[in-house]
Amino acid sequence: MKLSLEQIKQLDDSYRKNLINSISGFKSANLIGTIDEEAKTNVAIFNSVIHLGASPALMGFIMRPVSVRRHTYENIRSVGFFTINHVLENFFVQAHQTSARYPENVSEFDACNLSTEFSDLIPAPYVKESSVKIGLEYIEEHRIQANDTILIVGKIMELFFPRQIVDNDGFLSLDKISTVAIGGLDAYFRPERVARLAYAKPNRQPSELIRD
Amino acid sequence: MKLSLEQIKQLDDSYRKNLINSISGFKSANLIGTIDEEAKTNVAIFNSVIHLGASPALMGFIMRPVSVRRHTYENIRSVGFFTINHVLENFFVQAHQTSARYPENVSEFDACNLSTEFSDLIPAPYVKESSVKIGLEYIEEHRIQANDTILIVGKIMELFFPRQIVDNDGFLSLDKISTVAIGGLDAYFRPERVARLAYAKPNRQPSELIRD
Predict the structure, then answer these.
(1) Partner residues linked to B172 by β-bridges
(2) Of A1, A174, A187, which is closest to B161 when you measure between CB atoms?
(3) A124 touches chain B (CB under 8 A)
(4) C-alpha count within 13 angstroms, C-beta hemisphere, residue B133
(5) A29 vs A95, A186, B46, B88, CA distance in Å?
C-alpha cells in the first residue's frame, strides 16, 4: 500500500496520528520526572527518549510545542534537572495514565499511584517503581522549525540499575526486568531477545556474540 | 547499583559505550538509504530514528559527528532526499552488517546482499527486503553543541506498508511483519504485543483498546 504526501494530508486526523506515530518503528518507554520551584512534583510518559552520546554521556527527548503549558518543560527550564525512568511491564498502565490532563495542582505521582524517590544530587524526583533510572542536568535545546517541537538535551549525572542485568561488557539486558517498548501512541510491547551480534567488519558476516 | 558522573567517566571506553547505549531503553531499527550525485547508493543501519510530528509528517534521526566522512550525511545534503526502511527479523544480520567500514567505492547494498528499489518521486534508494518504507525530503538540521552530533529532520513525502498490518484507526501492527527493536549497540529484539491502551483521561483507569 502506498500513500503520497497529498493522501497523507487528506487522512482523518486521528488516523494520520496513529499511522505516522507507528511508522518510525518501536520506541522507548520512559517516565520523565520533574519538580517546580515550590517542590511540586510532575511525572509524564514519553516515547521519544534517545541516546545522544556516551562520552560525555548525553540523552535527549522531544517536547511537543510549548504553545500550551507543559509542566515538564517549565520545570526543567526553571530547576535545570530531570529524571528518566524506564517503564516496566508491571506498571505500564499507571505510566500510560500519566498522559491524562490532570488539574494544575495535582501531581501525577499521586493521581497515578506512582511513588517519588529522591537522591542527594538531583532535585527532580525519580519513580520508585522503576529499576533503571537516570538523573540528568539540562544543557541545551533545539527548536524544530517545521513544527515547533523541541529537542531537550541532558547530561547524565547519575545512573541506577540492578546489578544482575549488566553484562561483563556493560550491556544491560533490559528484557530481564521487562522494560517495555512502545508502538504508535498507545501500544505496549515486551521485547524478546533474538541475538546480540559481533561488531561488523567488511570481510566477515556478523556472528552471534558469545557471552558468559 | 549506582554510578555517579565521576564513576561513569572512569569506566573503560567500551564498557561505557555499551552501558550508555543500553540505558535509554529500546530503540527503532531502520536502514537509511541515500544516493550521491553520481548515482552511487549507500545504506546504513540507524537506531536513532524518531517521530517528530504527524501534521506535517516529520521524522528525524541522529548523525554522529561529521568530523570523519559520513556518506549518509553527504548524500542527504547534496541530493536532499533519503529513505527510512524498517529492519525485519528475516534480514537483521544483513542490516547489522551495513555498519562495517567498507571501502569508498563499495555500496553496502552489494556488500551486504540487500536490494535497491526506486520510486518515481524520491531519488534515494529504498531497501526492497523491507516492507515498511518511508521516503523523506531533508528540511533542517540541528547540531548538538555538547558533542557535535546532528539531528537531521525530514518531511515524509511517501509511505509504503502492507495493507494487512494497518488497523481501522491507522495503527500499524509492526509485530505482524517482525520489525525488530534494538537494545544497546548490537542486540536485536522481537517485540511481543502486551496491549493497546485507551486514551488516558483523569477520572478513569486506562482500559485495553478493543479493536476488530
Answers:
(1) B166
(2) A1
(3) no
(4) 21
(5) 9, 11, 19, 21
The model carries a pTM of 0.97
A interface test, pick of B16, B26, B48 with most A CB neighbours within 10 Å: B26
pLDDT digits (tens, 9 = 90+) for A56-113: 999 999 999 999 889 999 999 999 999 999 999 999 999 999 999 999 899 999 999 9
Where do runs of H (alpha helix) occur along chain A? 5-10, 13-22, 71-79, 92-97, 108-111
Pick A171's closest partner by Cβ from B18, B92, B111: B18
A197 contacts on B by Cβ (under 8 Å): 93, 96, 186-188
Residue B15 is nearest to which of A121, A146, A170, comparing CB atoms?
Answer: A170
Q: Is the peptide bond before A56 cis (omega within 30 degrees of 0)?
A: yes
- What pLDDT was estimated at residue A209? 78
How far apart are the C-alpha atoms of B200 and B183, rounded to whole Å?
Answer: 28
Write the ipTM: 0.96
A46–chain B Cβ distance below 8 A for any pair? no
Share of chain A above pLDDT 70, in %: 99
Q: Along chain B (212 residues), what's the average pLDDT of each consecutive run of 10 residues?
A: 97 98 98 97 98 98 93 97 98 97 94 97 98 98 98 98 97 98 98 95 82 46
Q: What are B196's three cell numbers?
A: 493497546
Q: Residue A79 is placed in which grid cell?
A: 530547576
Degrees to nearest 5, angle at CA B126 with B125 and B131: 175
Measure B81 CA to nearest chain A CA, in Å.
14
- Test the B interface: residue of A10, A50, A97, A157 with most B CBs within 10 Å: A50
At A179, list the grid cell: 522494560
With CB atoms and an 8 Å threshold, state whether B174 touches A190.
Answer: no
Q: Nearest CA to CA, how far is A36 from chain B (Å)?
A: 21
Task: List, for residues A182-192, the tens digit of each pLDDT value.
Answer: 999 999 999 99
Per-residue DSSP letter, B105: T
Answer whether A173's CB lies under 8 Å from A163's CB: no
CA angle A50, B87, B186 (to 5 degrees): 60
Whose cell is 520533574? That residue is A34
